[in-house]
Design goal:
Elements lengths: L22 E2 H4 L12 H19 L4 E5 L1 H5 L3 H9 L5 E4 L1 H13 L1 E2 L3 H6 L7 H14 L6 H11 L1 E4 L2 H13 L6 H15 L4 E4 L9 H7 L4 E3 L16 H19 L6 E5 L4 H19 L8 E6 L22 H7 L4 E6 L2 H12 L5
Parallel strand pairs: 2-3, 2-8, 3-7, 8-9, 9-10
Antiparallel strand pairs: 1-4, 5-6
Helix pairs in contact: 2-15, 4-15, 7-8, 8-11, 9-10, 12-13, 13-14
Length: 372
Amino acid sequence: MSYPRIDSRRVNVKPLASRKNKHHIDEIRIDPDAVLPPVTSRQKANIAKVAGWIRTARAQGAAVMLAYGAHMVKNGLGPVVVRMMEEGWITHLATNGAGVIHDWEYAFQGQSEEDVRAHVAQGQFGTWDETGRHTQLALLTGALDGMGYGESVGRLICDDGYTIPDRAALQHALAGWTEHPADDEIMPARADLLQALVRHDIEAGIHKVIHPHKTFSLTGHACRLHVPLTVHPGIGYDIIYTHPLANSAAIGRGAGIDFSIFVNSVSRLDGGVFLSVGSSVMAPQVFEKSISIANNLRLQDGLKPLRPFIAVNDLMEDNWDWNTGEPPMDNPAYYNRIGKSFSRMGGEMLYTAADNRVFIQSLCHQLGKSGR
């Protein structure tokens, strides 16, 4: 017997335009050519070292991956990272669910960040129609083309909408599969989409979703530039789960595809660079499993384990040299999960305590043009 559940169709969602937001994109966006923020001598030396790693990596065709938390988006660094992608310095982006949700809201309405305290008490935190609806339908339709979470949302932004297939076509495909079952990863995605169309009475056809501010969207530009942007969410972590359309199977499918894409990029990190910016949980946790899989496959092919360079940027101070080993348990640095996880990954690690605006802007400036 299953445990009792709520009926998510009863959740009352409101138009996103009715929500008061903390920031407009014009208040936060950073011009890649803006005057650099001040840096300490230690920050400057670290950033110069990381820039050197990246130049060497790209010269030999190795990957440069950037994993980031949502604050990088909320700090307006999208245009700076886009510049680094356009110049060929960054070959892969990875974020959590919030990182892509805030980016989408800025692209769609130019604003994001609600008053969590007030809205939780009112039963309104996260219950905004367009954010949940369009993200979910982008995932459901993107899966039909084999797309993961990041690429599905990126296409939504680039194409200003998505196309819902006819129910009859989905039914026909499913009926044919039941008669002649085959290994077809797309078939469950068709079933999930058909269920959503029936349950929520969604019509087939082109659904236009205009994004007036997509020029500032990291997710949209990654799709345009064909740079993989993968999303690594947790079920229930993000505001889209409050929406009646929330479909954990579709979200999990998109995240699963993205994890495979992430591992593929990690497999190109021998001599490459992995950047973790403001991501103390997702980045190390996903990275350690990914590099284990990549090494498993490399060893089968007679190759040595990966030796990446790992650059970590976060706000907390940490003066321990993780390349010498782990600190004793009576040292506060021992409880720095970022340092501990990344230092075990077989490469050289460098930690820089700095605001991500300082780190990313300075790194972009150091690298300059053309890493192709």
